[in-house]
Design brief:
Blueprint: E1 3-7, H1 18-30, E2 35-41, E3 57-60, E4 63-68, H2 78-90, H3 96-106, H4 111-119, E5 126-130, H5 135-140, E6 148-151, H6 164-168, E7 174-177, H7 180-190, E8 197-199, H8 212-219, E9 225-229, H9 238-251, E10 258-262, E11 275-277, H10 283-291, E12 295-298, H11 307-314, E13 319-322, H12 326-335, E14 338-341, H13 344-356, H14 358-375, H15 378-391
Parallel strand pairs: 1-2, 1-5, 2-4, 5-6, 6-7, 7-8, 9-10, 9-12, 10-11, 12-13, 13-14
Antiparallel strand pairs: 3-4
């Protein structure tokens, strides 16, 4: 049986993050065809990279996980350094040596993980690096480029214009892109058309029967609500969502609509009677909460796929997304199962529309589910995955 490794900065049932969750979904489904290791760190919190896991190795749902210590937590001056360097970058002053410092300051700084990749590369038939931005990919992939598959989860943001990535993105033996928009971005920026690739997203599983009634009773929710699922932080433009929602409530005082938040808060959440923050919830509560929502809302400008959007659509729940993000906008245009906004008044118009056009809203629900059934079936995705790995 061939042996493969997936490399990601964090891994675990407790880890709340898009690329991390995606890595786990893929790793668990590859165990039937391959001997699967995950190479990761002992960090659980991406804001500090503090070592939280104690075991060097453990098995999780059939996947062997190898954890390596983070030598330095995220640098206390990282935000300042980041701001200064992005200013230089926008002025056309890219500097690869300064970027090397950036990667180390951002973290997770784990030379031991990179050394393991270097010294054990002959034991593996392929290395799959998931997400482009972190130390393990930047330092690890050059060590095993000839047997690497790269899943960059890339989107338009300042960091992708680092000079370092002009080299990194030309290294892998094959690519897996999550969307057509990601493929176009990467090939346009780095001229990687000669590197074999496949476009495939992720399958979507609902591991339980959603129970909207039990969810509402547990959390005391009786009114209509829209829901946000994921990290609650500035990077996801959550503060903008809060501002828009509170403005909507101010302009529509008769509305009893609630905004329900699921996920770990990293930024401040306004104290407002109609904003309900539930924190990190169980999978049962997550899917039950999504199924009862009028819509799932995602304000992020930067997404490479968005599993929460796909989960909502699986449950026939329309989505409301930031149209600045080409990937999220693409989901809406290709499915007719969601709507996108570019400013507050479009956000307001969407909410008014879904409450005043019941027939169109019902069609959106059906369209969302049909989009998932056609494009995000696990059996097709894993067949494509196997073809990419075996080609190496």
């Amino acid at each position: 049986m061939k042996k493969i490794a997936l490399v990601n900065q964090r891994y675990g049932l407790e880890v709340n993050g898009g690329s991390e969750y995606y890595t786990r979904l893929i790793a668990e489904r590859l165990t039937g065809e391959y001997q699967v290791d995950v190479i990761t760190t002992k960090a659980m919190d991406y804001t500090t990279w503090e070592n939280s896991y104690t075991a060097d190795e453990e098995d999780i749902n059939g996947v062997h996980v190898r954890r390596f210590p983070v030598e330095k937590c995220r640098s206390k001056d990282f935000n300042q350094y980041n701001g200064d360097y992005l200013a230089k970058l926008s002025a056309g002053q890219a500097d690869e040596s300064a970027e090397k410092v950036w990667f180390e300051k951002q973290g997770p700084y784990s030379p031991a993980a990179v050394e393991y990749i270097r010294s054990h590369k002959d034991e593996y038939d392929a290395f799959i690096f998931v997400t482009y931005l972190y130390y393990l990919t930047v330092m690890g992939m050059p060590e095993v480029a000839e047997k690497s598959v790269f899943i960059p989860t890339a989107h338009e943001e300042p960091f992708i214009h680092f000079r370092s990535f002009e080299r990194i993105f030309r290294l892998p033996k094959a690519y897996i892109f999550l969307t057509d928009e990601e493929k176009a971005l990467v090939q346009g920026l780095f001229s990687t058309q000669n590197i074999p690739c496949k476009v495939m997203g992720t399958g979507v599983d609902v591991p339980c029967e959603p129970d909207e009634k039990a969810f509402r009773e547990k959390y005391g929710i009786t009114d209509d609500y829209i829901i946000y699922v994921g990290r609650i932080d500035e990077g996801k433009d959550c503060p903008m969502l809060f501002r828009y929602f509170m403005e909507y409530k101010k302009r529509r005082p008769e509305s009893s609509l609630k905004l329900v938040l699921m996920g770990k808060p990293v930024c401040e959440i306004p104290k407002h009677s109609d904003i309900l923050s539930l924190g990190f919830v169980s999978e049962e509560d997550k899917f039950s909460g999504i199924s009862g929502a009028k819509a799932l809302v995602l304000p992020s400008k930067f997404e490479s796929l968005s599993i929460s959007v796909l989960e909502a659509m699986t449950l026939s729940v329309p989505v409301i997304v930031n149209g600045i993000c080409e990937v999220l906008k693409g989901h809406c245009l290709k499915s007719n199962g969601g709507l996108y906004y570019m400013n507050y008044f479009e956000f307001e118009g969407i909410l008014d529309y879904i409450f005043s056009h019941p027939a169109e809203y019902s069609a959106m629900r059906s369209n969302a589910k049909e989009y998932i059934d056609k494009n995000y079936r696990w059996e097709v995705i894993m067949k494509n995955f196997k073809e990419v790995i075996d080609s190496i």
